[in-house]
Amino acid sequence: SASTAASEDLFRRALAVASGGVHSPSRSYAAVGGGAPRFMVRGEGAYLFDADGHRYIDYLSGYGAIILGHAPERVVEAVRRVAPDGLLFGTPTPLEVELDERLCQVIPSVDRVRFTASGTEAVMTAIRLARAFTGKTKLVKFDGSYHGHSDPVLVSAGSGFSTLGIADSAGIPPGVMEDVISLPYNQIEPLEEVLFRQGAQVAAVLVEPVVGNFGLVPPKPGYLEALVEQAHAAGALVIFDEVITAFRFGYGAVQDRFGLRPDITVLGKIIGGGMPIGAYGARAEIMDLVAPLGPMYQDGTWAGHPLSMAAGLACLEALREEGLYARLERLGRRLAQGLRDAAGRAGVPVQVHQMGGAIALYFTGEPVDDFAGCERSDSERFARFFRAMLQRGVHLAPSKYEVWFVTAAHTEADVEQTLEAAAEAFRSLD
Ligand code: PMP
């Protein structure tokens, strides 16, 4: 049946006790017509099952943390192996050394790493570290980019936020806002100008090398190279937020695909195999500033949590499988091309971006290469498309800003079924 009674009932209860009925605004259906979000009870491979027993092909994929699909045996087994020996010691553990070694080995710009419990904390700390290293204060970031929910990066942020039509979060002290300069992504001139005028005060330029938070927007040729060069010329550090991009398009950080070395790299999502994680890393000279070696403080009860370490290691091990990234690329391409074709047949103007298993669908006839371009994507059309897909058993993030993530568990049949649903969904838009 098409009943959503169980989700609706849970949502009614949730509304009375959790703000907005959800624990992350990005989970709410506020931007897609409201009502009860689907409450999911189980995941298996490419599928999610909701409280009413419906099965969905999932492309939300834990907002990108679930690259192997849901409940992959090797990761679940690793968690099962570790859990009985104790959930948390608050001491160093052998597993964290293994994951440290793995990340430092695979990402050449990272000599030393530190784990946190989330990407938010890792970005927050990376900014503090850049300020400690340079002795400067200002942060340059890019409009619409999401870097977690610490104060400075919620200035002109995107994702969850823009979905609800909020430009800057309330509650950020004016002093914090004064130290943040937000610029359009993919344009070098505004950055050049800011660095020319205020470079002496800029501690860091923070960027997602491939944007994954207003859809998926790759850098224009030469853009990142110029960004790094100019930041360094101004004595600012470059922070690459690779929370979404690392281990997404290949085994390692995306910076190496561009042949670039940021000063600080932020990691998260995939490296925790579906368990809570964040990390920041840099060359030794910078990481030596972190306590106890140096004066920049970061700590955390959950940092390097044993279950996150076990799940992360098992996930990274599984990602070494021969041909896995090539398969994600193939499925991604098929899905992207199929979406373009289906939209074309239905007369719906769209842009579809794709890299590996990551896909963005924009309801606009104009090319998208920055946040303003993404903003032109028709929210109303997206909302109706989202609903039509949900009804046909395809689960997307309830926001036009979010990427679709194909996982290693998705099959060609899943993609074809998705495209059949999409063809109907596009046709239903008129
Ligand atoms: N940086 C980027 C690029 C992200 O996409 C996210 C989360 N979507 C974060 C930081 C924050 O990570 P977390 O949700 O683990 O705090």
UniProtKB/TrEMBL annotation:
High-level lineage: Bacteria, Bacillati, Bacillota, Limnochordia, Limnochordales
Keywords: Aminotransferase, Cytoplasm, Isomerase, Porphyrin biosynthesis, Pyridoxal phosphate, Transferase
Pfam families associated with the record: Aminotran_3 (PF00202)
Gene3D superfamilies linked: Aspartate Aminotransferase, domain 1, Type I PLP-dependent aspartate aminotransferase-like (Major domain)
EC number: 5.4.3.8
Principal location listed in the UniProt entry: cytoplasm
Protein name (record): Glutamate-1-semialdehyde 2,1-aminomutase
Catalytic reactions on record: (S)-4-amino-5-oxopentanoate = 5-aminolevulinate
